Input
Amino acid sequence: MKLFEAIKKRKSIRKFEAMKIPRKDLEKIVGAASLAPSAMNQQPWRFVVIEDVSKKKQIRQSYENCRKALGAYKQDTEFVENGVLFAVFMEKEKLKPEFSTALAVENLLLAATALGYGSIVMTAPVSHKPSNELICELCNKPAGLELVALVVVGKAGEAPERKERSGLKKTLFWEEF
Ligand SMILES: Cc1cc2nc3c(=O)[nH]c(=O)nc-3n(C[C@H](O)[C@H](O)[C@H](O)COP(=O)(O)O)c2cc1C
Output
């Protein structure tokens, strides 16, 4: 798939068909994430792949609690269990680790798209203390790392409309605002 096609095709998917993703695809996806630029090439990102059914159930439940606690709109959270989860961490003592890790996450999403998978990145579970702690515990997080995002990748079970974007009129400026 061509780059611009993948960029256009990527949309947040919140419905997945339960299936396993071959390990070689998971490695290819994280390999692409690891090619992202990073401040001083410090590569602060770490990715934990979570496929275990019981772990995914616990994370789904805590995500559901998290959405309630945040007062977010109601979601069918089954997608959390049906996909493969990537818990994304950063080494917090590195330079601009969140920025670099976010760039790696975008690579991850585009690589997943190019391989024909749907995906979504979520940070609500990062902001919700009980979900954050659960994910860190399930991943046996070592000291010095911090959770940045939870990404779900899987076989898309929906084809949502493109969410509207602001357009260049609002976002692009030549020389000055
Ligand atoms: C930093 C970040 C955090 C997000 N967190 C969540 C989340 O917790 N739950 C969720 O359903 N979607 C989450 N999303 C997905 C956004 O809602 C989605 O990207 C946005 O609505 C644009 O839609 P699109 O991805 O289909 O283009 C997040 C996206 C980003 C970039």
